[in-house]
Amino acid sequence: MRPFAAALALLLVFSLAGCIVPDENPSETLRLATTTSMRDSGLLDVLTEEFERQHGIGVEYVAVGTGAALQLGRTGDVDALIVHAPDQEQLFIDDGFAYERTPVAYNAFVLLSPLNLNGSVYDAFERIANEEQCFVSRGDESGTHAKEQAIWRHLNETRNLSVVEDSNGLHPPGDWYYSIGQGMGAAINMAHEKDCTTLSDRGTALRFQNNVDLERYEFNDEVVQNPYAYLIVQPNNATAAHRFGSFLVEEGRSIIASYTINGDHAFFVAS
Q1: 2-12 residue pLDDT tens
Q2: Which of 36, 89, 45, 64 is nearest to 205 (CA)?
């Protein structure tokens, strides 16, 4: 196992748990930062194991929130990223840290909750806030956290929902709101333990569904769309990063399309 010394030091600052995959080919290695949802859903290991088998290139990865992953790209501690926050990704590109984003997969955000939630995702969030129902936020600048904040912001602007902005981001006030600064799996487990609601990507929700007493609610609102993209970090421009990018949009497509959890598709192939 060859961890990234600088990356791990940064992760301690963020207080996020990552995972380093052993490098079985030291002569050529891809250093990848990816979202916890890719790891927690189980898809990442399937993809990296097949890539290593086909191409003989080792993959070392660290799974963190999108904000932390992008920071690892900015500091040059990784060669490539798989993230799911398009606005943050575009800023990363505009700042010259990558040339482009390559769409690789998508799913949707869902709510896991003990409540009976009806209507749109906005109706569900508004009810949670108005009734001060327990809510667990990742609070980690991840793509999921960014999406949650976008929903609260929309409710503030369109329905006059009261919000505050502090070190935990933008959210309604109240001690019913828990911001934990951790990954998706930790947020789901805490929501289960405290009988709360949490926003999750569909893949991780499916992976945890049988282990928690929470119902999964899916919505048709455009805001819950959840695209994942691959970015090669400049100026690292590693050959391994380009090969993995080609793998994701070629051989990896069938893996993504066929990957299921308890018979349900966790992700869909980006067009």
Answers
A1: 334 344 444 43
A2: 36
Q: What is the largest CA-CA distance in the chain?
A: 57
254 and 190 share one domain = no
Partners of residue 261 on adjacent β-strands:
264
131 Cβ partners below 8 Å, 6+ apart? none
C-alpha span between 235 and 75 (Å, rounded)? 11
Residue type, 140: D
Query: Residue 24 above 90 pLDDT?
Result: no
Contact (CB, 8 A) for 75 and 198: no
How many degrees, rounded to 5, is the angle at CA 186 between CA 185 and CA 190? 120
In the chain, the number of structural domains is: 2
DSSP string, 121-163: HHHHHHHHHHTT--EEE--SS-HHHHHHHHHHHHHHHHH----
- Domain of 174, CATH number, reads 3.40.190.10
Range of the domain at 92: 5-107+225-269
pTM above 0.90, yes or no: no
Judge whether 231 and 33 are in contact, CB under 8 Å.
Answer: no
Same domain, 14 and 72: yes
CB 219 within 8 A of CB 120: yes
Helices (H), 160-219: 184-194, 202-208
Alpha carbons 85 and 47: distance in angstroms, whole number:
21
